[in-house]
Design brief:
Length: 97
């Protein structure tokens, strides 16, 4: 298991940075461009999930968030966080939708 985690972490960290042009969505889900954000954080009771350089967001009917980031990683954050925070990139809008 450790080798698998190390391999994923290595690949995650070594992936070249992507842009919004690299996003491929073959689902019927609608995604919003959030590439103006530098970082996004989901605060749970005992944990904080940090997503650097988020590019796209889909909010599911159940309230979960699907996020695609500039490292090519797709995240699913289930409904239930206590607080959601983000930092806009310098000169970008603090709220996009």
């Amino acid at each position: 298991m450790t080798n698998l985690v190390e391999a994923f972490t290595h690949n995650y960290l070594s992936t070249s940075e992507l842009t919004t042009d690299d996003f491929v969505n073959e689902s019927n889900l609608d995604f919003t461009d959030i590439s103006t954000e530098a970082v996004r954080r989901y605060h749970f009771k005992d944990e904080v999930v940090t997503i650097p350089k988020p590019l796209f967001l889909n909010v599911s009917r159940s309230g979960g968030h699907r996020i695609f980031d500039a490292h090519g990683v797709s995240h699913y954050i289930p409904k239930g966080w206590i607080h959601l925070s983000w930092v806009a990139k310098p000169g970008e809008a603090n709220f996009v939708k």
